[in-house]
Design a protein that fits this description.
alpha/beta; 7 helices; 31% helix; globular; binds zinc ion; binds fe (iii) ion
Length: 265
């Protein structure tokens, strides 16, 4: 089943195109199931330019828009999702907001290490001040913490830390095994995303080595484009699906009313 479980709307301030155009693009590409997962509003101070996420007061209208579009589309099936940031100081507030809406799926994302938006090109200079291996350790520790919080169904772009091509030297196998075991314990799924193909790292999130570790640990996977324009809907999905199959998966998952559904790849 062709699934794209991660796409945005202009409400986040950095995506283009109306939701119906994303649905039309999905239909043209033969996708069976898609989810809108726009960026949930961030806590005060984390989005100073309003360019990362929707404003809190937009959430109800976002939900209503997507519900209307979902009701009108038989194929593809359209799910109501949200991409929520892991902000450890605001867990209770995030949990309340998530619970206040009838989401099908909640993606959990680590876009911040403390208050550093490490994947924002506007803050790339911070990378030159950091030890790359240290940033990786901190990123994966944070990812595990987020996954273990119980807030999320799917961990999005699970090795986003590599986005600009900062990769520490040496063998990552032990780190990946630990991360995969922790995510398996947490009971979350992970996203296999084509977005990395369009970024300087020029590879899928997660890397084949990390994906193989997820497979060994029994972590379920879903597939996604992280589209921020209609043209990106389903982009790179063939490569993503090939990577999923190479890792040994024959099933993928999506979520309805926050229940995991497994279907054959
Ligand atoms: Zn975005
Ligand atoms: Fe993200
Ligand atoms: Fe996203
Ligand atoms: Zn994203």
């Amino acid at each position: 089943m062709k699934i794209d479980l991660h796409m945005h709307t202009p409400r986040c301030g950095h995506a283009q195109g109306q939701p119906f155009e994303y649905v039309e693009a999905a239909r043209r590409s033969g996708l069976d199931t898609i989810a809108f997962t726009d960026h949930l509003a961030l806590p005060d101070g984390y989005d100073p330019h309003g360019a990362y996420a929707m404003r809190p007061e937009e959430l109800d209208a976002y939900v209503a828009d997507i519900q209307e579009i979902a009701a009108a589309s038989r194929s593809p099936r359209v799910l109501l999702g949200i991409e929520a940031d892991w902000v450890p100081s605001h867990v209770a507030e995030t949990a309340r907001t998530i619970a206040s809406q009838p989401f099908d799926v909640v993606l959990g994302s680590v876009h911040f290490l403390d208050d550093w938006a490490f994947d924002d090109p506007d803050h790339i200079e911070e990378w030159s001040l950091r030890d790359v291996a240290g940033a990786w350790d901190e990123y994966f520790e944070t990812l595990v913490q987020a996954a273990s919080s119980g807030l999320f169904d799917v961990m999005a772009h699970p090795d986003l830390v590599k986005k600009f091509g900062h990769v520490p030297p040496g063998d990552m196998t032990a780190l990946y095994e630990d991360v995969a075991a922790a995510l398996a314990d947490a009971g979350v799924a992970v996203e296999v995303s084509s977005a990395g193909l369009r970024k300087p790292c020029a590879e899928i999130y997660p890397s084949e080595a990390l994906l193989a570790a997820f497979r060994r640990a029994g972590v379920p996977v879903t597939t996604a484009s992280d589209a921020h324009t209609p043209a990106e809907v389903g982009a790179g999905l063939d490569e993503v699906r090939a990577a999923v199959a190479r890792a040994g998966y024959d099933a993928v998952v999506y979520f309805e009313a926050r229940e995991m559904r497994e279907v054959s790849l």
